[in-house]
Amino acid sequence: MMIDYQHLMTYFNESPIYIQVAWGTSLILAIAIVCLSVYLKVLRFHLRKKEIENKLLKSEYEALIIEYLYTEDELGDGHTFKESVIEQLQSAILIESKRKLIISILYNLTYEVSGELSDTIKTLYIKAGFVAHALKRLESKHWYIIAKGIGELSHFRIDNVYNNVSKFLDHPRLEVRKETELYLVELFKFKGLSFLNTLTDTLSEWMQLRLLETLQKFDDQQICDINPWLKSQNESVILFAIKLAQIYNQFEVQNTLTELLSHPKKQVRIAAIQALTHLYGIEAKEMLKANFNDLSLEEQICFFGMLEKLVMPSDEPFVEKYLFHKNFDIQLLALKILKSINIEKYMGLSKTTTNEKDSSMIELVNTI
Amino acid sequence: MDTSTVKIILQILHYIFFTYAFLAISSYIVLSIISGKETLNYFKKKSFVNYKDILSSTLSPSITIIAPAYNESLNIVENVRSLLSNHYVNYSVIIVNDGSKDDSLERLIKAYNLEKINYIVNEKIKTKPLRAGVFKSKNPAFERLMVVDKENGGKADALNMGLNISKSKYVACIDVDCLLVEDALLKMIKPFLDETETKVIAAGGVIRIANSCVIKDGKLLDINLPKNLLVQSQILEYLRAFLLGRMAWSKLNGLLVISGAFGILDKNIAIAVGGYDTNTVGEDMEIIVRMRRYMEERNEKYRVSYIPDPLCWTEAPDSYKIFISQRNRWTRGTIETLKKHRKVAFNPKYGTFGLISYPYWLIFERLGPIIEVVGLLYFTILIVLKEVKWEYALSFLVLSYIFSVLFSIVAIYSEELTFHQYKKKGAGVKLILLSALEPFILHPFVLYAAVRGNFDYFFKKKKSWGNMVRKGLTTN
Predict the structure, then answer these.
(1) Which of B140, B210, B221, B263 has its CA at a distance of 20 to 30 angstroms from the CA of residue B241?
(2) Is the pLDDT of residue B188 over 70?
(3) What residues form the membrane-spanning segments (chain B) (predicted)?
(4) What pLDDT, in 10s, does the model give residues A238-273?
(5) 3 state SS of B452
């Protein structure tokens, strides 16, 4: 054996450098393979074991929490069931994996219950001591842990930590700033949107969606004045405000929305047409009709969508000009509009047209 | 030529092969490091995102799933049920029956209570005409579903018909037999909605192999490692490609392909570039390359995004014949796309796309198999001429083999640390053993299929898709 080893070493030492490098690297990689394989085995065993444990713990804590939620408040000074649950959770959350598990159970339950039960979950969250752990997260040097902490406080609507959270409005990471903004909205409802007054970041569509969904959860749907946001320098804030105007039927901002029809950005102009359609913006309709040829194709299609909803008999001469428009959507809408305001004239169209495509369109609209 | 000249030529050839192999291996290492970092970053970002807040939102953007079907009558009813069971609120499903010769349409009509509706297709992209027409369900439970029966024009043509009909801003183009996980649409739409400075034009996710998995009512109930070695090898191959490759290309904004099995496109851009190319068998890669060119030529900031979550499960070929036919098609698709867009190659006007992604695909994906075959032939000649320096050959052969095994194990390791999908006892050992076997049981066939693909492209001008015989995913 020793001789073989010596022979190998001699062969290796006498080999050219390239061969030495190749064999040397192969040896290192082979050792890495062995180590990784062993580690993979250990890792998989650990993951499987953890999963089984989590499954058991999950069903145990889930049952406990559900029982807590559905137990009436007990009277008397004795050690009640609810107190014992809180104590169990208090000791459990000292272990990180258990804390994560219980938080996930509470998260899931909040989606399944509402009203009083939702408040009970919040009370349990506070009494069991989760707030302190979430606040600890805010002290982390990792941005994603801070974001997670804020998200948790926001989800359970913990309002007495406002000062601890609001300082993150200026955090260098966008994700942290966004979670903080959501926290403010969760806490102060529409007033929490005040960050929009000075917002310089672009509000992503995802964030807009999250904000709108958060706002829709509240019983009190009394919206604040959105005019300043409609006039914002931040285009994404304008788009968000237009959505608010549409969802919350803000008829009083029609004039500001009409002004946005001349906004330099097409996306804003289109969103404004859509909102004005929803808000019955008759004046805007007349204005757009007068400037129809100056509009982009997308705006023209959008305007015809508006006309379909807000059409009046006086619009007939305008609509007639577009009955055979080369754009499919405009033609289809023009035909539908004519049919709705003057069926006789519409029925006569098939006699006057010879174009096969136009005839099929007329026939199609006729069946709608 | 004297002996010294021959020796110099041989020396040059040695260095060319060595440099190529060195660059290929280095690129794998660099890409896997970037992938690892990017995956970690993705998990950090995902750690505080609560998808449930948005899942039921009626304000979320609309998505149309377009699923072309050709002679899929065996499983079409179940497959459509699976597509209709996604948890996203604002979506619709268009099944394009591409001139099937079987009774797919009749089965759909019966199962979903369909009736023909009057419909004129706004032909923004030219397609084959409608055959039986457009169908909607009389049952409100299936109101999301629309079935379009058209004359046969191939997968690309069917997808184009879907693009013409869709009224959504985004379209999810998928294979009808794919199984989407319930939150697939929500997770895939997020990159489109998250970006503020750049426009996301397309997004793709990880495709996983569903052979031997237990599926019931369109839901994946149990994940199993198949017994078939070929399918197992493909699982390993997919893990490597998706976990150690695509995530890096996403970070570099260099993705040239979003799998045709499942990807979401920005519909307006897809239509603006003329839809899917019906003259290629690699339409999924071609449209992404064309969309990228479109954005580059307009100097618009854009991204092709990718997320590592396993969102789509599909059936992989379980026989070598079908496997070779599939890979042959992939090769022809790559050749056609790269040839069609050769203007992009090494062109600084196209930025990363022209200077990194395209050249990488050209050198390592397109030319890789050819260089490998030339290398093997050259090695054979050297053996015949007794010019092989066995000390070198053996040491480098062992090194490359050990590297390939290690690379696969790193992919398995990434999988375990991230999604840990193959949980059953024994699956880990099987995958590790497979890492050692895969270079012998899969790679030679991949190489053969690629060579056949080249041959078919240049000599047979084969345009057909080839047969992909599906057995259907396991149901319980």
Answers:
(1) B221
(2) yes
(3) 12-36, 367-385, 392-412, 432-451
(4) 999 999 999 999 999 999 999 999 999 999 999 999
(5) helix
Which tokens hold the place of B402? 């050990």
Residue B3 has pLDDT above 90, yes or no: no
ipTM comes to 0.88
Cα angle A53, B39, B187 (rounded to 5 degrees) comes to: 80
Best interface-test mutation with A: which of B18, B42, B47, B48 has the largest number of A CBs within 10 A?
Answer: B48
Specify if B86 maps to a domain: no
Q: Do the bridges between strand B219-222 and strand B214-216 make them parallel or antiparallel, or are there none, so unpaired?
A: antiparallel
Helix boundaries (H) for A115-253: 115-127, 130-138, 143-155, 162-166, 174-188, 205-216, 227-230, 235-247
By the 10 Å C-beta count (0-12 exposed, 13-18 middle, 19+ buried), A313 is classed as: exposed
Pull the structure tokens for residue B417.
Answer: 């640390």
Which amino acid appears at position A133 of this protein?
H
Q: How confident is the model at residue A288 (pLDDT cuts 50, 70, 90)?
A: very high
User: B48 and A51: CB-CB below 8 Å?
Assistant: no
Interchain proximity B47–A48, CB inside 8 Å: no
Strands B170-174 and B262-266: antiparallel
Query: What is residue A351's predicted lDDT score, i.e. its pLDDT?
Result: 79
Per the structure, how many domains does chain B have? 1
| Alpha helical stretches, state H, B252-367 | 267-272, 283-297, 320-340, 351-352, 358-360
Supply the CATH number for residue B212's domain: 3.90.550
Contact B395 A23 (CB under 8 A): yes
Which of A293, A294, A276 lies closest to A285 in space, CA to CA?
A: A276
- Shortest CA distance from B398: residue in chain A: A26
> pLDDT value at position B301?
95
Candidates A29, A144, A205; nearest CB to B47? A144
| Joined tokens for residue B77 | 């009813």
B63-69/B199-209 β-pairing: unpaired
- Within-domain flag for B234: yes
Q: What is the mean pLDDT of residues A79-107?
A: 89
Question: Is residue B222 included in any domain, yes or no?
Answer: yes
The average confidence (pLDDT) of chain B is 92
Read off the tokens for A209: 């969606």
Per residue in B146-185, pLDDT (tens digit) is 999 999 999 999 999 999 999 999 999 999 888 999 889 9
**DSSP string covering B103-143:** SHHHHHHHHHTEEEE------SS--PPEEEEEEEESSGGGT
pLDDT for A34-64, tens place per residue? 999 999 999 999 999 999 999 999 999 999 9
Is residue B4 in a domain? no
CB nearest to A204's CB, from B45, B196, B403: B196
Nearest to A217 by CA among A166, A154, A130: A154
pLDDT at B476: 43
Phi, psi of B473 (to 5 degrees): -75, 150
Contact B53 A107 (CB under 8 A): no
Dihedrals phi, psi of B262, to nearest 5 degrees: -165, 120
List A residues 235-254 in contact with B (Cβ-Cβ < 8 A): 236, 243, 247
The residues that bridge with B136 in the sheet, in sequence order, are B115, B146
Nearest-CA distance from A287 to chain B in Å? 28
Q: Are strands B302-314 and B179-180 parallel, antiparallel or unpaired?
A: antiparallel
**What secondary structure letter does DSSP report for B61?**
P
A48·B54 Cβ contact <8 A: no
The CA dihedral of B208, B212, B216, B219, to the nearest 10 degrees, is: -10
Band the pLDDT of A165: cuts 50, 70, 90: very high
Q: What is the pTM of this model?
A: 0.91
pLDDT at A116 (0 to 100):
83
Task: Look at the block and give the residue holding tokens 């990471």.
Answer: A173
Residue B375 reports pLDDT greater than 50: yes
